[in-house]
Design goal:
Elements: H1 3-16, H2 20-39, E1 45-49, E2 56-65, E3 74-76, H3 77-83, E4 92-96, H4 102-131, E5 137-146, E6 149-153, E7 158-161, E8 177-188, E9 191-197, H5 201-211, H6 213-216, E10 220-228, E11 232-239, H7 246-251, H8 256-263, E12 269-274, H9 279-286, E13 294-298, E14 303-308, H10 313-317, H11 322-331, E15 334-339, H12 350-384, H13 391-417
Length: about 425
Amino acid sequence: MNLEFIQALDDIEKDKGISKDVLLEAIETALVSAYKKDFGSKDNVRIEISAEAGEVKVYSRKEVVEDVENKNSEISLTEAERIDSKYKIGDIVEIEVTPAKFGRIAAQTAKQVVMQRIREAERDVIFDQYKEKEDELITGTIQRFHNDNILIDMGKTEALLPPSEQIAGEKYEIGERIKLYVVEVSTTNKGPRILVSRTHPGLLKRLFEIEVPEIFQGLVEIKAVAREAGQRSKMAVSSSESKVDPVGACVGPKGMRVQAVVEQLNNEKIDIVKWDDDPEIFVANALNPAEVIGVDINKSDKIAEVVVPDFQLSLAIGKEGQNARLAAKLTGWKVDIKKESEVEVKPDNIEEIKADASELTASLEDFEEKESKVETDIEKEASAAELDPDADAEEANEDLIDEISDEVEKLEKSKDEL
């Protein structure tokens, strides 16, 4: 090696951020293996590289002992004193054994080590760079297809889009730029492995964050997302400001914001609903666009029993149960949908109705008592009346009978009304 090589190490340190000392240490370790392999040495050796001149020297390291048993790692005290009289038993003696042609081997080995370290450093940089982008949105170019996998060109590296993360029915073409969600970044022997997705719910969330300024500003929050990629999704949103409509903000003027997201997701249908802390209201909102009459929450079993009008049942369930299924994913509740005609309505004001019924019963009993008394009075008046056989008396009796009949009819009508 020479001064040019040392200068190259300085340049690598500046450009790649790899410490020169780390590189020299790695080269020295590699040269030890190269020396033993090429020269068949079994000695315990140390390689020293001058950081200033680039000169390489090989030293055999041996321990000073009284009686030598292993010539490769031990030296007698007598021989050690010939080198330097200061050596004692237990000291380590270093003897230079640099081969004449070792410079060429050293240069070749050093080059291999440096190249390997550069590759490792670049992999580390890429890993760190994309590790920070986990759960984030990135844009890449479709580079090639491998079996059913799609390899995405990210510039300095590739990302993997496996079949399980591809939208069914979506067409992919080489050279096409697409937005992707970073699911996971891990290390392998071949470098960083970047797993990306087109089906993850996080992709929908990140796309709306780009299109809706209110989300970026923190005025609107995406609380939950449920997706069946390529077909339909539901997203629950809330607002920290009473004046800001979270659903309207995400839909945008004339639906422009939501449409921009739809176009990037293979025309996937998106339902945007309002989040609510009350599970009954939230479940009802989640079944949009179906109309909901009532929701009964069973907290112990985490079940929401939903009642909808008969004509809305199919809409609430959705095609192949999709609407109900997505509502369940979005809310975290098992949704049981029933039509109105099948449900016995249980009023919430049952106690009030019971009180009214009790009052009505008492009124009816009071009426029956009064009715009985009136009938008795009528009978007394009838028996006490003198029925004159002549015409005038007969007419008077008929008037009295009609009057009694009218009174009885009024009482009967009042009774029916009660």
